[in-house]
Amino acid sequence: MTGPSATSSGSTTKTSRHGRSKSTSSYCHTTGTPAEPTSSTAANNTERSSGEEDEKDGGVPFFVNRTGFPIDTVTWERMWSHVTKVHPDGQEMVDKIRNATHLPKHPVPSVPNFKPSMSVPDWLHAVQNYMRNLQYNHTGTQFFEIKKTRPLSGLMETAREMIRESLPIKCLEAVILGIYLTNGLTSVERFPISFKTQFSGHHFHHVVLGVYCNGRYGTLGMSRRTDLMDRSLSFRTLSELVFDFEDSYRRYQHTMKKIKIGLYVPHNPHVFQPIEWNYLVINACRQGCEDMRKELEKHGRDMRMKHCFVSQSAETAIKRCNCANYIGSASNPTTYWFRTMVQKNV
Predict the structure, then answer these.
(1) Are residues 240 and 319 in the same domain?
(2) Does one domain contain both 184 and 81?
(3) Among 87-96, 132-141, 319-328, whose mean pLDDT is lowest?
(4) 159 and 201 co-located in one domain
(5) CB 160 within 8 A of CB 269
(6) Does residue 125 carry a catalytic annotation?
(7) Could you give the count of Cα atoms lying within 13 Å of 83 in the half-sphere of its Cβ?
(8) Does 44 map to a domain?
(9) Per 3-state DSSP, what percentage of the chain is helix, strand, and coil (rounded to 5)?
(10) Is 267 in the active site?
(11) For residue 49, pLDDT beyond 90
């Protein structure tokens, strides 16, 4: 883990007054007890960061590292103080780690390399395994600040920082990293899927990266629970995929409240536009399964149609550009004709 005395590259961002955020990288609690209990006063005084959800995750805010790397002393000590409160062994465990003269070096997972011989499912499996090897972040401090309104190009820089630091991540960070690692796979379309559930009077948030390829849907992601993470490319429709997640939540006595589906994320990592996170919002507690299915299927068709339209428009633009280049080239006889027309003011 990168402490205040470590040397590491990475951009530095401004620190907020409290340095904590509500559910942007959401917890997937499946028990009734919040993982990071804090006082109600601290929760009320929590500052909100751009792009976060409207509800606290389980009624409990969590800390966010807003100062980049290396982690500053305030963020570092705050993290350990929180761990002391929530870990079963408390201060004894913290002292054992922090006062150790020698700690074994944690293995850094290798970034997967795409090979032309790999199939799409194999590559998605390799990406998911890489994120799983980074491990889910249980410290109560999110190491990478993710602002949903930030341009895609900026979020891709954060993804590169995740790879450099190789620290545990949460679900929202996994979505950004999944987008980055699949940018070169143009046959796969990516889009965010967000869930809001309720358990024991509290609301919980989670997000995964939906993937679509060759008429099949799946997901990439991170969670405390293995059945709330990735899904293979085996679902024929978007509704089948979403309902499968709902079934998993039901096994943990969570009630689905809202489902938010975004739009396809561009494969160009340099575009200066934010990700569309909430293009379709479904109120699951007010709509029946059939109505939800129809909305999800319509959204899936709309995304595919818009993608085809954009692709055709881009292809037409390229053809026009090539045509213009040909007309303007010196070797093209049409160039002489255009010049003659101009000279004669025809």
Answers:
(1) no
(2) yes
(3) 319-328
(4) yes
(5) no
(6) no
(7) 19
(8) yes
(9) 40, 15, 45
(10) no
(11) no
**Same domain for 149 and 252?**
yes
**250 lies in the same domain as 337:** no
Which pLDDT belongs to residue 57?
64
In a domain, 25, yes or no: yes
pTM over 0.70: yes
Token pair recorded at residue 231: 């899904």
Q: Domain for residue 180, yes or no?
A: yes
User: Which residues make Cβ contacts (< 8 Å) with residue 317, sequence separation at least 6?
Assistant: none
Q: Do the bridges between strand 141-142 and strand 62-64 make them parallel or antiparallel, or are there none, so unpaired?
A: parallel
Of 254, 270, 286, which closes a domain? 286
Alpha-carbon gap, residue 259 to 141, rounded angstroms = 26
- Considering the domain boundaries, does residue 112 fall inside one? no
What would you report as the CA-atom Rg of the chain, rounded to the nearest whole angstrom? 24
Q: ∠ CA(182), CA(265), CA(248), 5° rounding?
A: 75
Domain that holds residue 339: 310-343
**313 is an active site residue:** no
Number of domains, the chain: 2
Catalytic residue, candidates 171, 194, 205, 248: 171
Give the DSSP letter of residue 139: S
The answer on 214 and 137 residing in a single domain is: yes
Q: Which of 223, 248, 254, 299 is catalytic?
A: 223
Catalytic residue among 82, 206, 254, 299: 206
